[in-house]
Amino acid sequence: MTTLADPAVRPPSAAAPPAPDGRIHVTKRDGSREPYDADRINRAIERATTGLADPIAKVTQIASELAITLFDGITSEQLDEAAIAVTVQNVKDDPAFDTIAARLLRKVIYKRVLGGYRTDVELALLHRARFPGYVRDAVEDRLLDARLAELFDLDALAAALDPGRDELLRYIGTVTMTNRYMITGRDRKPLEVPQYFWMRVAMGLSLNEADPTATALALYDAISRLEYLPAGSTLVNAGTAYPQLSNCFVIQMDDDIEHIATSVRNVMWLTKGTGGIGLSVTKLRSEGSPIRSNNTVSTGPIPFMHTIDSTLRAISRGGKKFGALCFYMENWHLDFGQFLDLRQNSGDPYRRTRTANTAVWISDEFMKRVAADEDWYLFDPAETPDLVELTGAAFSARYAQYVADAEAGRLRTFGRVRAREQYKQILVTLQTTSHPWLTWKDTINTRALNTNTGTIHLSNLCTEICLPQDRDTISVCNLASINLPVFLADGAGAAADGAGDLDWERMARAVRLAVRQLDNLIDITISSVPESERANADSRAVGLGMMGFTDIAERLGLAYDSPEAADLIDRVVEFVSWHAIDASADLAAERGAYPAFEGSGWSRGLVPFDTLAAVEADRGVPVEVDRTTRLDWDALRTKVSRGMRNSTLMAIAPTASIGLVAGTTPGLDPQFSQIFSRATSSGKFLEVNRNLVTDLQRLGLWENVRERLLAAQGDLSAIDEVPEHLKAVYRTSFQLSPYAFLEVAARAQKWIDQAISRNIYLADRSVDAMTDLYATAWRKGVKTTYYLHMMPRHTAEQSTVRVNKTENINATGSASGRPASAAPAPVATGGPARTGFAGFGAARKATTPSPAAPPSAAVPAVPAVPSVATEPPSGATVLDLADTEIVDGVACPVDPMERLQCESCQ
Question: Residue 678 — very low, low, confident or very high, per pLDDT cuts 50/70/90?
């Protein structure tokens, strides 16, 4: 049985012998054969071009390329897949081919789920007629929650289904939705079309409402229009028999064997339910620390981390991909040097993590010592247990006492290194392994409004969640993201800051509905871990984010690094934050405040903006961010002091997967390239920036420059005819100043009570530049950073199918065509152990980059549904991503957008 994700399409050599009459026959589903009808296929392609420019030329091009893929005996499914494949291969010439491919793919989905149809009217009638039966049958098969058949007016819901909204989905979005989120039967056959999927999710998030049908209709209307999207775990499980809907789980591991074992068990169960996990190991005593109960010494945290890393590979998330977790450690831990080495390729494999990520939890005290070029001391948590719980000035005072105790000989062991030396070691390791991510403990705790229940000891898998946790509490967050481009007015153009081109009233409705849906989720979701059930109910934490910022900036003609773009993100996030907080206050009046409200910053009438002053007062260093406000925050402060339904309201997640469904740029990220190949777990896709194509077509330039743009790997700066203002708007991630990423994050962060998953892109390997960059992030009040992407690691090779790869490898020693000797030289760090640097310096190894990737064959950027032909049509050009990194023994994608989709990253 073929599937959309991995079709078993046979090449001509594997085809049946030619028919005696020389004609091509198609094998139908029942095994019968009929002559290939070119006219019938052409009519189907013609219907898929409705409303597009120059449809006849497009039909002719697809049909002619399809003809060379055919062989006698080709199955009807293979024929569908081949038509889609040759269509997608033309996306590089015109993004309209993506629309055609998406329509052809959805037609396949419709036929498999609903059966045959002739017209759009008939398709709409099929949607409505078969929806109640779909729900009842799936409930009977125990795939869907029984309440879906009991609480809802299925006929009313069916009448609201609008298959016309499928036109909002691009090809990659349709494939992602199908492979990741839509349910299948026990026999793996598809049960849902896109609109069934949206309605199932809406129903699953309305189960606790007084009028579930009315709420489901409202939610369906918003998410099917892509105004906002719930996060991945919610989309996978909403309305199903196992509604584990929460997205992020944050755990602190205590320093005793019972809690370590409990934490491993909890990781297993949370991973099974598709949750992403953050896990702090700072409390675990260091290697060699005495264990008095049996008169032995500790092995330290590293072996336990390796055990959990193996668990992630053993328990796949929802049966779809490896478990995902990030370890956090504070950098005063005596074993921090070993923690830094966790992602290195070399060394003892039993002291490495091949799946889990790592992040460092950094104090203000450390950043100040880096600035002053002072020493930094490392301690065994068994001797300094209160440091984990202290933050800000209180941490600094207690840390200074432990330093004095160490120098006076009152501690069993300690380490000492220059703060700048450790800072450099962190950054060099980050550069060579993409880990550890840098996150700031005191900025997070001081700027939080929910720390009345305890200290925040870590963030989550993607660094945007900031919630307190302790031995008996696994903090939980629930996510959704506003899709900003949906709210652009038709024909929007460059305005002073883009404000006049956004439909603010419609956006406010979507924000308020998303907050209500997230609050519903908390009462509906289930978890097999009692510590997370209790935390979810007590804090009712939600994280509303957004995606598509770069998308709207481009459409408005704003360069990502311009003052106007910074003002735009400032205004948009302020607006979303104000309405999210106001909606939660309204829900508190309707449903009651969250149990831990009293004593929180909210109860004192504080909002996220107010925490800027608190940070400055505590650290004694100004926060370098614009302080402009536009909305009536004083009235809102009074309102929130009376009650809030949720302890947190906002967090900006990466949105790598749901961004594909929405057809927009992820989170706050810039464009990686204007044309590039994206490899996901659903297949490999060629991405072309539609905004750029539209602008070039408007100027009459697209036809003239597209081949050169492809040859330049999407670099617009290399094409003279393109106006300078467009070159500025379409600068890509490595062409922008990295300080622009921090300015955007800082402007957004002042309105957000949690954090932002903030990727950083650098065009060179200068450690000195990184040193100032990350210090600037701290000074601007940014709470966390996520992946660091280095341009030398992210180079896409562009070639045609006629390039002789063997000759290239023989000539250069590299499949990329670059000399093998061009690899960067190893970077040595560290140095001899300094006096008193016990247990750290002696164990330090020179840090070296990952070994170079071996030569590999070209990986053409073909679509997820490959062509039957052995080669693309004559003259076709593809992007070849021959450069991959060998990380942890597996080939990691070179493109940061691909990396966000790989099993280790999300």
Answer: low
